[in-house]
């Protein structure tokens, strides 16, 4: 069974202080080493990824079978869409990545699978109570999450997750082992004086930040030896 490892005592106090000062904090490890390795391996081997493309208010989700269509014209169309989205990302909210849905409905066919277990761990009432103490949010009610995979060129442009009254705490459960800063995929937070703060993709690390808060994920470099893997989304209230 997958379960979160929730710090208490001095470590909890330090996390709370960091959250109060910056609006974000990180917990590592968040899973047992065995559970983290199992989920990482499952995501790395999965063939159920859907391609997620978006720009402005438009979103284009392709199931695996359509994304893998070898027809030359289809492949060229996909490349053209990706290039158009990437080239316009500085003007509009845009994103390119792969995802596996982790809604209750999507996970129903495999109720004992690793992703279903992970969703149950994230929605454990004890986790909600712990997060409520940490953040001061009065009543968390659920999660909105998906597994994500960023390969070469994939990115998420600057945004703040709003307006959405239900999203209270953004979360990224990193599953990118031995990631190099030079590989990109970094979670960045801009400040008012043009400084940047952020996090390189982590392994078995839960990054939390309060919503709304501007952030972006930089494009993954061709130098990256493997994809950036995570489970990302929000705790809802």
From TrEMBL:
Pfam families: 2OG-FeII_Oxy_4. Keywords: Dioxygenase, Oxidoreductase. Its cofactor is L-ascorbate. The keyword Repeat does not apply. Residues 34-236 form the Prolyl 4-hydroxylase alpha subunit domain. This is 2OG-Fe(II) oxygenase. It comes from Parerythrobacter lacustris. The lineage of its organism: Bacteria, Pseudomonadati, Pseudomonadota, Alphaproteobacteria, Sphingomonadales.
């Amino acid at each position: 069974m997958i379960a979160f490892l929730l710090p208490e005592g001095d470590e909890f106090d330090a996390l709370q202080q960091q959250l109060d000062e910056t609006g974000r904090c990180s917990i590592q490890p968040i899973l047992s080493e065995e559970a983290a390795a199992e989920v990482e391996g499952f995501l790395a081997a999965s063939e159920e990824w859907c391609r997620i493309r978006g720009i402005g208010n438009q979103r284009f989700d392709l199931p695996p079978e359509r994304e893998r269509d070898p027809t030359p014209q289809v492949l060229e169309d996909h490349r053209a869409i990706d290039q158009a989205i990437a080239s316009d990302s500085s003007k509009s909210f845009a994103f390119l990545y792969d995802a596996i849905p982790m809604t209750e409905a999507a996970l129903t066919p495999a109720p004992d699978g690793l992703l279903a277990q992970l969703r149950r761990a994230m929605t454990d009432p004890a986790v909600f109570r712990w997060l409520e103490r940490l953040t001061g949010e009065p009543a968390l009610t659920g999660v909105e999450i998906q597994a994500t995979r960023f390969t070469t060129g994939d990115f998420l442009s600057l945004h703040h997750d709003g307006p959405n009254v239900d999203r209270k705490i953004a979360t990224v459960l990193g599953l990118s082992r031995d990631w190099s800063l030079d590989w990109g995929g970094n979670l960045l937070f801009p400040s008012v004086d043009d400084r940047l703060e952020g996090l390189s993709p982590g392994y078995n690390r839960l990054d939390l930040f309060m919503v709304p808060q501007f952030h972006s994920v930089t494009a993954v470099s061709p130098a990256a030896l493997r994809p950036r893997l995570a489970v990302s989304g929000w705790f809802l209230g």
